[in-house]
Amino acid sequence: MNKEPQGLENLFPFLEATLNLDPQSTVISQFKGGYSNLTFLINSPDGQYVLRRPPLGMKISKAHDMVREFRILEALEKAGYDKIPKPILCCEDETVIGVPFFIMEKVEGLILRNKIPEGMTLGKDYFQKLSKNTIDGLLELHHLELEKSGLSQLGKPEGYVERQVIGWSERYFNAKTNELKALEAVIDWLKSNLPKNENIGFIHNDYKYDNLVLAGPHDPSIKAVLDWEMATVGDPLMDFGTSLAYWAEAGDPDILKMFNLSYMEGNFTRAEAIAFYASKSPLNLENMIFYYTYGLFKVAVIAQQIYKRFTMGFAQDPRFSALIHVVEACGKKALTGIQNNKI
Asked: Does the fold of domain 124-340 match that of domain 2-105?
């Protein structure tokens, strides 16, 4: 973690007033690893908390709306869903740190990023169980009751698929830096092959290993799911398609293995993940090539947006310089998948 992040000086009196934390004994440090919204650890003798704020620079979009993410956590808590960090407070007053932010509890556990932590051994059996737990967790979300819980108010499911394809296409061209013909061909294909039927469910929209807090290196059960900023009510297969886009396999390009440890031995293949999901879902998964292609396209656009911020000087993280290669690899993989009808 990076210590003493800049721009948070006014946070100490705020924390003293709202959570009764002593400024002299409270330490704030930034978590590494994220590519978008910024996350900080608040450490004090009275407890540990996590703060979420939007990224630096560029206009805040829906995906970086901290107030909305806080409301989603509150709604999930009200709905009885317990795999979340408990939401504690939301601050819309921009005079505190310059942007809206929220604070939630810190959930202790293991988060797997792009490599196994040093000194830790996770075997084939661990990843096999983690694969099952991950898909089961996604199904649990997709099967949440919407009306009585109030979750239905968080999105507009009618026309969701078309809106997403058009919206992400617009975002790509707004953030475009390089000529990538394969990706633009994928955009045209998605617009021409929209599914006739839509499904409705609660969806996370960024569900992958590094957004899961696991019990530990000997127990891959899921304690909490993180990063709810893109959650809404829409088509669950769009959500699953995004998860599959992150679900790298051993034979995939190395650049696409930087987001998920799903390529390690023992994990489901994408085909096995689809079969497992299908065995527990009433949805028709015959057209998964569309949803997988959409997922790859969406991952490409997210990487493109971050890369654009990097080229404009709003983000200095050296990892961001490589994201244009992620954009290109996603475009090529999606186009090859369309041509071969293979996920």
From this structure: no
C-alpha to C-alpha distance for 58 and 36, rounded to whole angstroms: 12
| DSSP secondary structure letter of residue 287 | T
Give the C-alpha separation, 64 to 62, whole Å: 5
Please give the C-alpha separations between residue 145 and each of 75, 76, 87, 191, in angstroms, as whole numbers.
12, 10, 20, 31
Measured distance CA(190)–CA(180) in Å, rounded: 16
Fold assignment, 2-105: Phosphorylase Kinase; domain 1 (3.30.200)
* Of 154, 25, 188, 16, nearest in space to 96 by CA: 16
Give the type of residue at 268: F
**Is residue 34 very low, low, confident or very high in pLDDT (cuts 50, 70, 90)?**
low
Letter string b/e over residues 266-277, b meaning 16 or more CB atoms within 10 A of that residue's CB:
ebbbbeebbebb
pTM of the model: 0.90
Residues in the chain: 343
Q: Three-state DSSP class for 25?
A: helix
- The pLDDT confidence band at residue 9, using thresholds 50, 70 and 90, is confident
Residue 105, beta-bridge partner list: 49
Q: Options 3.40.50.10190, 3.40.50.11690, 3.90.1200.10, 3.90.1150.10; which CATH number does 124-340 get?
A: 3.90.1200.10
Q: Please list the alpha-helical segments (H only) found in the chain.
A: 11-19, 66-78, 124-142, 160-175, 181-192, 236-246, 270-279, 288-311, 323-340
The alpha carbon dihedral of 319, 321, 322, 327 has a sign of positive
Q: Are 279 and 187 in contact (CB under 8 A)?
A: no
- Rounded distance, CA 196 to CA 169, Å? 20
* Residues 185, 337: Cα–Cα separation, whole Å: 12
Residue written as token pair 């829409």: 234
Question: Residue ranges of the domains in the chain?
Answer: 2-105, 124-340
> 259 falls in which pLDDT band (50, 70, 90)?
confident
